[in-house]
Structure prediction request, 290 residues.
Amino acid sequence: MPINVAAAEGTLVNRKELNPDASPEAAYGARLRRLREARGWTQDELAERMGYTGRHVSGVETGRKPPTRRFSMSADVALGIEGTGDTFERAWGEIRHGALLEGFPEYLGHEARAVEIRLFEIGIVPGLLQTPEYARALADSDVRRGTINAEKADERVSVLAERQATLSRTRPPVVLVVMDESCIRHYVGGREVMYAQLERLVEFAQLPNTVLQVSPHGIGERRPFNLPVNLLTLADRSVVSYAESQTQGHLERQPTSVLPLLASYHQLQAEALPQATSVDMINQVRRGSP
Prediction:
């Protein structure tokens, strides 16, 4: 049977170049294409294995059609990556949280696989350390102010629970946390909720893979950050950072931008209270002492 050269060439000419950095959906589609082509499959061949049409696979690969959980799970089975740490179902979960601040869904994917997590927070306890009641009090407060609806509040608490699961995985990351003193003195959810939250911080400090420090008010201008900062060390020893304001988040991978933040974080750790002293301060606040 003769090969339709014109049609084949047309397919190559019309092949859409993908930019995985354009969005989480674009990264999803580019990876799907890469894994499919690595196996020598056409879109129709992958689609047949998944129970979809080639047009549907093409739409997901080029970002014209958003992936669903069912599609993602089918892709994982067809490509033989089901149950691994980097599935399309996980990527779909990151996309699902697209209502979160820009850059944060992608950050979540990195956080779940990081070998070291460094956090700095002002005003509220970092999310990875929050109790469900503390997190719910914050979310409900945003609902009352009208900044989010009840559905978004539920999603926010759900996302937090998923994030915290990374701390109990088989090989948990090293987690280094520096909290501004305001985090433990700013009461959230009432006395009982705050008491349990402070107790949770003490328990966190006792884990073998964690360090918890308080940055006291007294260090003044020596505190290098005025906004929350998240730094992740990945398995290949590269470092990414994530910082956010009230309305916008930003994920940064470039070493020229990330390494100065890492250096400033080390300076912050040197200025902050040692862990034992930090735990003493937390216990004093928990007992109601000044």
Confidence is low (pLDDT under 50) at residues 1-13. The chain has two domains: 15-96, 104-286. The radius of gyration is 23 Å. The CA atoms of residues 208 and 272 lie 20 Å apart.
